[in-house]
Design goal:
Elements: H1 2-18, H2 28-53, H3 67-72, H4 74-82, H5 84-135, H6 138-147
Helix pairs in contact: 1-2
Length: about 170
């Protein structure tokens, strides 16, 4: 079918190329008449050739679907060819969307891990602070002093002295 259409198109183009003036006559009116006659002759011969090629026995009209055309991808190719830039833009935007979403998910996972580390660090700091406070109590200090006999530190039996200094 496509071959017939291409042949018909070439026939019409050949007929239109032959109708261009090549004579250099002095009478332009006569040249116009000759051109018109030649154009009509070419047109009628082209129409006659078209009629010979086309018959009423053709079973498949030009606009019909055939399994060969569907499986061969003729219609898909035509749709893709007309919208190739739109398809490429959509593919590009989908790729960018997937990349950005992947990066966001990675960032969210990293933020969650850092928050867990921060909570663990706070708990360790609070635990260390509580242990230090417990070890610094007077009762614990006295207990450590009694356990270590080699130390010279002892608790005082007398209350502390308050020294007043006059400021002059």
């Amino acid at each position: 079918m496509k071959e017939e259409n291409n042949e018909l198109q070439m026939t019409v183009e050949i007929g239109s190329e032959q109708s261009q003036p090549e004579s250099s006559s002095a009478n332009p009116a006569q040249d116009d008449k000759l051109e018109e006659a030649q154009a009509q002759e070419d047109t009628s011969s082209a129409l006659q050739r078209i009629k010979e090629k086309v018959s009423e026995d053709d079973t498949a009209p030009i606009g019909s679907l055939s399994l060969k055309q569907i499986v061969g991808g003729d219609y898909l190719f035509i749709a893709v060819r007309h919208h190739i830039w739109l398809i490429m833009l959509i593919v590009l935007l989908c790729t960018v969307y997937v990349g950005v979403r992947y990066q966001c998910e990675q960032d969210v996972l990293e933020i969650d891990q850092l928050e867990k580390d921060l909570v663990n660090a706070k708990y360790k700091a609070m635990s260390s602070s509580s242990n230090l406070t417990e070890l610094c109590r007077q009762s614990n200090v006295l207990k450590v002093l009694h356990e270590n006999a080699d130390t010279l530190l002892m608790m005082s039996d007398q209350p502390p002295y308050i020294i007043d200094v006059d400021e002059d």
